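Entry 12.
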Amino acid sequence: MLKTQPLSYRLYAPDNYPAASASSPLVLDSPHSGTTYPPDFAPAIDFGALRTAEDTWIDDLWSGALAFGVPMVAASFPRAYIDANRAADEIDALLLDAPWDGPLNETGKVKLGKGLIWRMLDDGTPLYARKLSVAEVHHRIDACWKPYHQAVAQLLDAAHQRFGKVWHINCHSMPSVAGAYATDKPGLVHPDFVLGDRDGSTSAPEFRQFVAAWLREKGYDVAENDPYKGVELVRAFGHPAEGRHSLQIEVNRKLYMDEVTLRPHEGYARLQADLRGLSEALVAWMRDQIA
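Predicted 3D structure (tokens):
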């Protein structure tokens, strides 16, 4: 079943959701899979370049999890418009035509031009030939960021209320080679998967370890908390002492698509089947944890 919140998100859930309450202790979210480009965006670059910021196909790749009662929230808005995996105060003052009217959190991502509102693409291309108003940034937060975070929170709370514990996967993709302005390790050749729980602060280690072992058994190259530890969504929702476990999973795009055309290649079906299998294995493992 697909439910939508205009502009903000799509909710993929079992047909009887939410009548039967939470049906799984596992919840997925895909904050960078949005492809609806709002008319007020007005970037200075073409659509093809903008699409390189998307986590293209990630929501579809994980869609097999629905068969096991696992709901998924996926962003409708594009990452380049506003990034749901940043804190609401990660405002890049260089983008604004007036001083920001709230707190500023100048994180490393903001300094890279990748704050709540992106200033540039991974290759350093500026997104805008103009300054943004404070009002339009607030609009993006209110119309996109807040409803998305609220939707994820509601799913996690429902699962936690039913099962006493909840496990959350924050789903992402990464290029085969890190861009010049994408991270603090430009040019890094990425493994197949990177699992991040902010060095164990957003999840008990068993969650990350189970996923890593399962993927390695399938022949994938898996890194843990390096080079990506997880960002805002796992930080906000991962509280292992409360039985709330959040893990970021980055998938290498070379496994499933042509990174220039963004079209799936022959590896797509295998990866999609493996992520379905991982979801099934995780739900079974989680039910053992709460038995």
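Annotation: Residues 202 and 225 are 12 Å apart (CA to CA). The mean pLDDT is 93.
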